[in-house]
């Protein structure tokens, strides 16, 4: 009790290659946290490299499937996933971490901030959208998060269940 398996894999083929292992963890009722990379949130559904619907792939295999959309949500999402994997009937959970959530602010800003000299209305709208996206992605990212150890709950049988 109190232990969980953890696997971290790259997006696309890295995630899809875990399907058999995740199914085995489900059948064995083993708590397992699968952390998978994903295409940047701005590129989802736009033909980005290794952009597949990973959440749908694991919906029937995992107790929970979550995609983190902001840096501030990484720690709470991982904590919740670990609790879910270990609670009730133990089993696997999947947390998707898009690449733009994992990179430092200055790297993401440089990648998407290339429209500094936007021209015309369309350019200004695109620049505004990207700057707003960047602000939302990192909003609250540097605020302290609860990092205390998670409680370990060991289910004990009642006298009725034991049959005294």
TrEMBL record:
Give the UniProt entry's GO cellular component terms.
acetolactate synthase complex
One GO biological process term: isoleucine biosynthetic process
Q: Which SUPFAM superfamilies match?
A: Thiamin diphosphate-binding fold (THDP-binding)
What Pfam families does UniProt report for this protein, alphabetically?
TPP_enzyme_N
Gene Ontology molecular functions: acetolactate synthase activity; flavin adenine dinucleotide binding; thiamine pyrophosphate binding
Which parts of the sequence belong to the Thiamine pyrophosphate enzyme N-terminal TPP-binding domain?
Answer: 2-57
InterPro entries recorded for this chain? THDP-binding, Thiamin_PyroP_enz_TPP-bd_dom, TPP_enz
Which cofactor(s) does the record list?
thiamine diphosphate
Assigned protein family: Belongs to the TPP enzyme family.
Q: What is this protein called?
A: ILVBL protein
Underlying gene = Ilvbl
